[in-house]
Amino acid sequence: MSAAPPLKDAYELVVIGAGPAGLAAAALAATLGIDTVLFDEQPGPGGQIYRAISETPLRERRVLGEDYWHGSALVEPFRTSGAQYVPGASVWSVSRAREIGVSVGGAARLLQARHVILATGALERPCPIPGWTLPGVMTVGAAQILLKSSALAASGEVVLAGSGPLLWLLAAQYVRAGVAISAFLDTTPRGNLQAALPHLPAFLASAYFRKGLRLVREVKRRVRIVRNVAALAARGEGRLEAIVYRAADGVERQLAAEILLLHQGVVPNVNLANAIGCAHVWDERQLAFKPAVDEWGMSSIDGVAIAGDGAGISGAEAAEHRGRLAALDAAERLGRIDRVRRDRDAAPHRTSLRRAERGRAFLDALYRPAKAFRIPHDDVVVCRCEEVTARQVRESVELGCTGPNQMKAFLRCGMGPCQGRLCGLTVTELIAEARGVAPGEVGYYRLRPPIKPITLEELAGLPKTAAAVAAVER
Amino acid sequence: MFRRLHEADGKAVRLTVDGRPVAAREGDSVAAALLAAGIVVCRTTPVSGAARAPYCMMGACFECLVTIDGRGNRQACLVRAEPGMAVATQVGKRELGR
Q1: Residues of B whose CB is below 8 A from A389
Q2: Do A269 and B60 touch (CB under 8 A)?
Q3: Pairwise CB contact (< 8 Å): A153 & B2
Q4: What is the pLDDT of residues A28-72, one digit of tens each?
Q5: What are the structural domains of chain A?
Q6: 3-state secondary structure of A271
Q7: Which residues in chain A touch residue B55, judged by CB atoms under 8 angstroms apart?
Q8: I want to staple A397 with a disulfide (CB 3.0 to 4.6 A). Which of A221, A222, A434, B38 is the partner?
Q9: ipTM above 0.90 for this complex
Q10: Residues of B with CB under 8 A from a CB of A
């Protein structure tokens, strides 16, 4: 990594995202002599999983756990690899011809890439419950980011609710840091364990088993856990004041709460891949759309590869191996190495990837989010930006809307600044249910660049050629 | 709401929020600084005027939009808190010219 050199007009390889997949891909590519730049939206490397790895104010290693600190082992080789690193960079467009539109520090630029690796990672699945827009309601991921980057922990009456490994991890991190949790409302459906059992042998042989068991024990000792929570609502005037929930006994209970941290697992962040036009498929096991990629991460668009959780959730460790495989394939396509060397060098990464992916099928089945938390009832706000409810989406289906793109024109749902990141999957599943068809048939929003809002001033400030200026001058 | 796990660490960064002094820490995003200062609401929505606060902290949800040094619609979770920064909570949509 060099100290902020100016951006060039063209690169052999542009990597987008500085999480495990992006860091590993850029480091390996640059080491192979490929002219590489890595753009990342955050101010420091690590992505969300290793957020603030180079500068976290948390000095007690045991709070975040050893898996977090593994992030340092990715940052160091990246820094010395020769890849150019551009933090605080918002990539708002990638064309099919691999022209990249990026804003850094309020100035927009266009540049050309011969090959692109998207490492855009994961997003938390939308958690549409009544009252989820109230101040005081946040995601578990948000709480982790505050913990990692600012040593901030929720205080007062803190409730965690939802399902998934990250929920247990945050609870354990809070317990280690001495943060009091009023209640842990587990929404994992009772029947999930049964469905997960066929995948148990692989899970038992994976690292997830040992780590997971320890996490759950650590949390159970200190935190009140309510299992089989079937309904959940946040209440308050202008901010969160209470949580109402219903457990297996069918009785509605109320809890005072200042902070509610929600989680229903993570899904691929597909916005950029979708806007480029990469083909996507519905993954019924993970209940999400993911880009269709080959064993190297190549998408349906020439010269555009996708590595890490952005191509389907397999976790941080798998992401780095997927990043390296994508880098080797890029090196072959860019003429740096031949196919024989690519395949030979890939072998150890493939072995590591298989090991890292072991146990994932069990986790997917065990933590498959309940329908009630994916397909909300009528009064729940689905689109936070445009404040559209589930009822409105269902009514649009009655009026004849067959998919999210037609519905957008009726309701503006998904057309706010988040561009569907917080409603896309909910809308697809709502429409699928209302029509009685599969989510894959309904499809997802067709996204278009800019995938992040940019100002007209930034667009107008793009460097222009003399010919372009002459063309519009009178 | 949110508290620091250890108070002594990190250099203080002083900024203002709606004219009121707020002490953040070096490395905080503007959104983290707001939460640490106990500022519950960062904006109201253009559609219904409902109060909103940071939700995802990773640049995805656009709930933490604020005005920073006169520029509206900045994602507070993606901007580092800098000394002397003037942050304003945002009412409704971004005003023209900001």
Answers
A1: none
A2: yes
A3: yes
A4: 999 999 999 999 999 999 999 999 999 999 988 999 999 999 999
A5: 10-123+267-337 (3.50.50.60), 126-264 (3.50.50.60), 375-442 (1.10.10.1100)
A6: helix
A7: 137-139, 142, 384, 422
A8: A434
A9: yes
A10: 1-6, 9-10, 25, 27-29, 32, 35-36, 40-41, 45, 47-48, 50-63, 65, 73, 77-78, 80
